[in-house]
Design brief:
Chain A has 881 residues and is α+β, with helices and mostly antiparallel strands. Chain A has 30 helices and 24 strands. Chain A is globular. The chains are: A alpha+beta (881), B alpha+beta (112). Chain B: InterPro entries: Tscrpt_reg_PadR_N, WH-like_DNA-bd_sf, WH_DNA-bd_sf.
Chain lengths: 881, 112
């Protein structure tokens, strides 16, 4: 019978070798004794117990008997680590500055991007029930044209809440354009006005400061204001019970005041009118409102989404017959369809880009891109640190040797080097904080955010930052620490360095990575800028220069025509047009179902964009006719005439478009159906952004006084604007506002422009950090080769040949980087460009230019060091040996 | 008088070694103590005490013969050094002198 084997092994591991024999002997003897006394099971138990007792006593004894040693947590030693680290930094100021500057820039960039990403991800999460709020959207196709709409039919909310008990509440948001709002003498133009159901404040967690959450919006013509708007109109007075005049909709009674809508919300309104103030609409196919549902806790959204076909058949089915002239089944057979989908509210900001979004949303893609950039830039800075430390290892090798001879173990040396890197990281963090504070306003402007210092200085952010720095410090420091501490004292002190110090394949790889990232970002910047220039200079099909837009001219009411006539008389004005519909910026927009009357077979109607224009519209905007004629007052029948663009002609497949007849569906009522005759074809122009292909467009005669467009010819713009303003002021006391078509056009690509600018900045930073690293590295290698250079010069080498010698190695790395970065950059930019319907081709010279830039910058950086080294008199470098 | 301090358990172990006259090693000492005093003594405690006493110079040891039940391992046999014996005597003397000065020696408790 043998004692437990495992216990023996354990004992052997812990016991001092000299004492193992007697201890184990005693234990075995005792085991045999116990075996006879109490049986096997108890004996084994006791054996274990005894072994554990021994192990414990060894462990306790070891501490008290062995000579004292330094532990990880020994404060004296930690103090010493940092003292030595500080001395090292101080001794090599230039390299410390390079290190700290690189890291600081990297960290600052990272901090800003983290702020941005965190904010993007936090959208709509302020709602207490964010996980149970869903938006209903409509997908489908009519006549083969895909629909992807952010809103649902207006009656859908109440109907679905009625039909499905799992739906706790619904609310709708519907805009009615801008309003001029009056209270006493205060009069402002307000754009952020919405009409919503009384359940709004139940579903969305926007606290009411005044008024009852359940009843504030139950009556028609009531409105809730945000806190800051209330202050704007009423100052310190209590607004509840007072009445505002809201544009043409009449008096609205204020029933409540709510907090301002948080900035990280997918909508921002100042006025919440009651939904019952709008006239009720019963038709599903001709009404729309952003519709949100709050589900009960135990009800999953999948259940509701699975009901979509039933909902469509029950409610839309009958209307298909009415609007499209065929039964729902027939409609389905033609390959068309309708479907309701439900989006989680937290997905809206980043994952939704449908027609009719309340505000342009952001894109997930940019969150990924910026996170990647943050990681890359930090990586570059870390690489710098690693490179400079290992390159400098030649100088530290002796120190390591002496320390080891004096009894340092590798563990202690590792800790010392880590302490050094932590010190550098935290110094860099201090600098980075300063940088962030300095550039925050600029960054806010670029990213259109409103970060204050408070967003940076909260506990969570600080904890993350410190933890992040710790990780960066340890990561960047780990390689040098293990590398340097592994030197063998004998060979180091003899003056022989480990072969790794000189060749440094790892260092070369790291430099290559740095340049791959830099070149990639240069390519990105070039392509983004090229595409933006392409968009801005592309012939859009209309003349966007010298067009002035006057806003909100509808407030003039029946005086509008007189005002327009008066403007037309000005010598600086070429033409004036009612321009409610415009291809850029604020515009009405309408769709109508359009059918070819003479088509051989009954087809389902196409859903086409519709403009209402007057006869001055085409000349004012500089849109040219391809065929036929413009609208004219001279033809009395022009109210039944229509202009179509070339895309429409292609869509209907007309050989001879003039004289063709089309019919519109309207809102379904017989009075809203019209038949039009095509009198002219206009050249295609971009009435949507360049992301989309030019779609079919029809223009009917009517004109829309929402805004006025003026084609002007004047050198003295300010004087002209003053004249117009005076005339405006003479007619109305509403605020005067205007814009230029070209400005509005450029603003359409604001987000791309921002991306372009940010890319440029980040690319610059990446190149800067990479160059810092290269600069340091070049300095080290030239230092190491001082003697070699001296000997070469003595033997007759020219300055140029020495510079070439020193630069060659680095240039080789840059060339490898170009080879790697080119395909990656090509692929990434191809993906980005795929978003544009009209885009540039990727040309080889972009990559050539990026590579050339990288080579030039690298050469400049390195040559500063190498020329300095090459000019040194060899007497100085060879003097001492 | 200056000498190493001896704990109560150390004293007992030292005494046991002295009593066992050359046959003292870990297991034997442990068994002897638990038989004589009735306490549950553990092997590792005895080993620790033996080691401390050896460090203080009151015990010396040499390796003995291997036996089969020890798996062929040798015993470490302990003997008391002169210093150890003197220490035991001094302890004894100190105690005797204190007992002698006790004016009213303890009587067995009587039940009233």
């Amino acid at each position: 019978m043998k004692p437990p084997h495992l216990a023996d092994r354990l004992l052997k591991f812990f016991c001092a070798p000299g004492r193992l024999e007697e201890v184990q002997g005693d234990l075995h003897e005792e085991f045999q004794y116990q075996l006879r006394q109490v049986g096997e099971r108890r004996a084994r138990e006791r054996y274990w117990w005894d072994v554990l007792g021994f192990i414990l006593s060894f462990a306790l004894k070891r501490k008290s008997i062995e000579y004292s040693t330094t532990h990880l947590t020994n404060p004296t030693m930690i103090q010493n680590y940092f003292k030595i680290a500080w001395r090292n930094l101080w001794r090599k100021k230039a390299f410390s500055v390079i290190n700290i500057a690189g890291l600081a820039v990297g960290l600052a960039t990272c901090l800003l991007i983290v702020l941005f990403v965190q904010d993007e991800l936090s959208y709509d999460r302020y709602n207490a029930n964010a996980d149970r709020i869903f938006r209903m959207t409509l997908q489908g196709s009519i006549g083969g044209k895909e629909l992807d709409i952010a809103y649902a039919p207006a009656p859908a909310g109440p109907a679905i809440q009625h039909d499905y008990p799992g739906v706790e509440a619904f609310t709708r948001l519907e805009e009615q354009g801008t309003f001029v709002i009056k209270y006493g003498n205060e009069r402002f133009k307000e754009e952020r006005v919405v009409f919503t159901d009384s359940s709004f404040f139940t579903i969305f967690s926007i606290p009411l400061l005044k008024g009852n959450r359940l009843t504030v919006l139950t009556e028609p013509n009531t409105v809730v204001l945000t806190q800051s708007t209330a202050r704007k109109y009423f100052g310190t007075q209590n607004p509840v019970g007072k009445s505002l005049t809201m544009g043409t909709m009449g008096l609205f009674r204020v029933t409540g005041v709510c907090q301002d809508v948080p900035s990280n919300s997918h909508f921002h309104y100042d006025f919440f009118g009651s939904y019952r103030s709008l006239h009720a609409r019963e038709k599903w196919m001709s009404s729309g409102a952003n519709t949100y549902f709050l589900l009960r806790k135990d009800y999953s959204i999948d259940k509701l989404a699975a009901q979509s076909p039933q909902i469509v058949r029950k409610y839309l089915g009958p209307e298909v017959q009415e609007f499209l002239g065929m039964s729902y089944d027939e409609y389905l057979r033609k390959g068309d369809r309708f479907e309701f989908q439900f989006q989680p509210i937290t997905d809206l900001h980043l994952k939704s880009d449908r027609e009719g979004e309340l505000e342009p949303n952001s894109d997930e893609k940019y969150v990924y891109i910026f996170s990647a950039i943050a990681v890359f830039i930090l990586l570059l800075a870390c690489i710098n640190f690693m490179n400079l430390s290992t390159a400098g290892s030649a100088n530290r090798a002796k120190e390591v040797g002496i320390r080891k001879v004096l009894g340092s173990v590798q563990q202690q040396l590792i800790r010392q080097f880590l302490a050094e890197s932590l010190l550098i990281t935290f110094l860099a963090l201090l600098v980075a904080c300063g940088l962030v504070i300095a550039v925050l306003p600029t960054f806010n402007q670029l990213a259109t955010k409103t970060f204050g210092l408070d967003t940076l200085l909260n506990v969570r952010m600080i904890t993350y930052t410190l933890a992040g720095c710790l990780v960066v410090g340890l990561l960047a420091g780990s390689y040098p620490a293990f590398f340097l501490s592994s030197f063998k004292p004998v060979s180091v002190l003899k003056g022989k360095l480990a072969s790794g110090v000189r060749s440094g394949w790892l260092r070369n790889t790291l430099v290559t990575i740095q340049f791959v990232v830099s070149i990639g970002m240069i390519i990105g910047t070039l392509v983004v800028h090229q595409q933006l220039r392409f968009i801005q200079n592309k012939k859009v099909g209309f003349d966007k220069e010298q067009v002035l837009i006057l806003h909100d001219t509808y407030v003039l009411g029946n005086k509008l025509n007189a005002f327009k006539a008066e403007l037309a008389k000005q010598s600086q004005v070429a033409s004036v047009s009612l321009a409610g519909y415009l291809p850029a910026g604020n515009s009405n927009s309408g769709f109508d179902g359009v059918r070819d009357v003479n088509a051989p077979a009954e087809t389902s109607p196409y859903r086409l964009k519709t403009y209402r224009i007057d006869e001055q519209y085409l000349p004012t905007l500089g849109i040219r006719l391809a065929l036929g004629r413009n609208f004219s007052k001279a033809f009395s029948g022009d109210s039944a005439a229509v202009l179509v663009n070339e895309a429409t002609v292609r869509q209907f497949g007309w050989k001879n478009p003039i004289g063709q007849r089309i019919a519109t569906v309207g809102d379904g009522s017989p009075g809203d159906r019209h038949t039009y005759t095509v009198v002219g074809v206009i050249r295609d122009f971009h009435f949507e952004s360049m992301h989309q292909h030019i779609a079919p467009l029809i223009m009917v005669y009517g004109g829309d006084g929402y805004q006025l467009a003026l084609r002007i010819r004047t050198e003295n713009l300010p004087a002209f604007l003053k004249t117009v303003e005076q005339k405006w002021k003479a007619e109305t006391d509403n605020p005067f506002s205007y814009s230029f078509l070209s400005e509005r056009f450029n603003r359409m690509y604001e987000s791309e422009q921002r991306i372009g600018e940010l890319f440029g900045i980040f690319a610059g930073l990446a190149v800067f950090i990479a160059c810092l690293g290269l600069f340091g590295l070049a300095a080290f290698t030239t230092l190491q080769r001082t003697k070699e250079i001296g000997v070469r010069k003595v033997l007759g080498a020219s300055v140029a040949s020495i510079v070439a010698l020193l630069s060659k190695d680095f240039l080789r790395l840059v060339f490898v980087a170009i080879l790697i970065a080119t395909p990656i950059g090509w692929y990434a930019m191809k993906e980005w460009l795929a978003d544009f319907a009209y885009r540039i081709d990727l040309e080889w010279w972009v990559f050539g230019l990026a590579g050339l830039l990288a080579v030039a910058v690298a050469l400049l950086t390195v040559s500063f060091q190498s020329i300095k080294a090459a000019l040194v008199n060899p007497v100085r470098s060879l003097r001492s040996e | 008088m200056k000498r190493s301090y001896l704990g109560e358990f150390e004293e007992i172990v030292l005494l046991t070694v002295a009593v066992m006259e050359g046959g003292a090693y870990g297991v034997a000492i442990t068994h002897e103590i638990s038989e004589q005093t009735g306490r549950a003594v553990r092997l590792n405690q005895v080993h620790a005490a033996l080691e401390r006493l050896e460090d203080k110079g009151m015990l010396k040891s040499e390796m003995g013969e291997p036996t089969a039940e020890r798996g062929g391992r040798r015993k470490r046999l302990f003997t008391v050094t002169a210093y150890g014996r003197r220490t035991l005597q001094e302890i004894q003397e100190v105690r005797v002198s204190f007992w002698a000065r006790l004016l009213n020696p303890f009587k067995p408790a009587t039940s009233l």
